[in-house]
Design brief:
Cyt_c-like_dom_sf; electron transport; 147 residues; 8 helices; transport; mainly alpha; Cytochrome Bc1 Complex, Chain D, domain 2
């Protein structure tokens, strides 16, 4: 019941954060070119906008160094780390622990679009971010944090 409520809160926050407050979205998307690649989107991605767009994630995750885990692990410094291993004390699902790979831009892009497609049976209950520039902004935010 609590997990269902957290998912509902996260989805509502995502709907608000993904569509509002980014007056540069269309111009940045145009600058990335027609049918932009992830690399082109990352070239125009903005970590500060990504921080705002990650508001939905903050229903379940923390992002500050030293902050505790919540329903999901603290995501500070996750970029470049092994999947399912960034926070040793967090109880990751076996599916995520066993997935292998690292949280690079391509993996995060696929994950933020549809976590279940990347790691079937993951405990991550999130519907995804459909807009590719919104995903790139969140990835830029995660990448900007370092370790």
């Amino acid at each position: 019941m609590i997990r269902t409520r957290l998912v509902a809160v996260a989805l509502a926050a995502l709907a608000v954060s993904a569509c509002g407050g980014d007056k540069t979205h269309d111009a940045r998307l145009a600058k990335a070119g027609p049918n932009p690649s992830l690399a082109a989107l990352m070239n125009v991605a903005d970590p500060q906008i990504g921080d705002r767009k990650a508001a939905a994630c903050k229903a379940c995750h923390t992002f500050d160094a030293g902050a505790p885990d919540m329903a999901g692990p603290n995501l500070h410094g996750v970029y470049g780390q092994q999947m399912g291993r960034n926070r040793p004390s967090f109880g990751y699902s076996a599916a995520l622990r066993d997935a292998g790979g690292k949280w690079d831009a391509a993996t995060l892009d696929a994950w933020l679009k549809n976590p279940q497609a990347v790691v079937p049976h993951t405990a991550m209950m999130f519907g995804g971010i459909s807009d590719p520039l919104n995903r790139a902004d969140v990835i830029a935010y995660l990448r900007s944090q370092g370790r």
